[in-house]
Amino acid sequence: MSQEELLELKFRLIDGTDIGPKKYSTTTTVATLKKSILAQWPKDKENGPRTINDMKLINAGKILENNKTLAESQVPVAGPPLGVITMHAVVRPLAFDKGLEKQPPSSATMNKCACAIL
Q1: What CA–CA distance (Å, rounded) separates 1 from 57?
Q2: Rounded to 5 degrees, what are φ and ψ at 44?
Q3: pLDDT at residue 45, rounded to an integer
Q4: Closest-CA residue to 59 (of 78, 84, 81)
Q5: How far apart are CA 59 and CA 87, in angstroms?
Q6: What is the pLDDT of residues 16-26, one digit of tens each?
Q7: 64: number of Cβ within 10 Å
């Protein structure tokens, strides 16, 4: 019977503060991690995530996918004692929700030349 492998993770926020550290199984999904972070998110912080889809987790320069486990995401689990692994929790800006998708250009900016001939 093998012992379940645990990773000690902490999550760095944009302002440099941390959530954690806490131990998680390598079979934990990224979505479950995000739910845990959402529950522990400091209430006094502005622009916190409302759902797990408002947040991205980054480890070693890779954005982790919600449906994958820590093991599938290739979070380091072997080798010398790792100590605490730091992941970055990034919140998607609210501007994405406020209609900044594709808007047609206004007629004032369309077909306008900005050349100056001297």
Answers
A1: 32
A2: -85, -5
A3: 79
A4: 84
A5: 5
A6: 889 989 999 98
A7: 23
* CA atoms of 21 and 40, how far apart (whole Å): 11
Long-range own/partner contacts, residues 10-14 (CB < 8 A, 24 or more apart): 10/84, 10/85, 10/86, 10/87, 11/37, 11/57, 11/86, 11/87, 11/88, 11/89, 12/86, 12/87, 12/88, 12/89, 13/42, 13/45, 13/89, 14/90, 14/91
Predicted TM-score (pTM) of the model is: 0.70
Across 22-36, 42-56, 72-86, least confident range: 72-86
The predicted model gives 40-54 an average pLDDT of 86
Give the pLDDT band (50/70/90) at residue 36.
very high
Q: Are 65 and 33 in contact (CB under 8 A)?
A: no
What is the full DSSP assignment across 62-89?
EEPPTTSBTTTTT---SSS---EEEEEE
30 — pLDDT class (breaks 50, 70, 90):
very high
Distance of CA 34 to the CA centre of its chain: 8
The CB density around residue 56, as the number of other CB atoms within 10 Å, is: 17
Look at the block and give the residue holding tokens 């000690």.
8
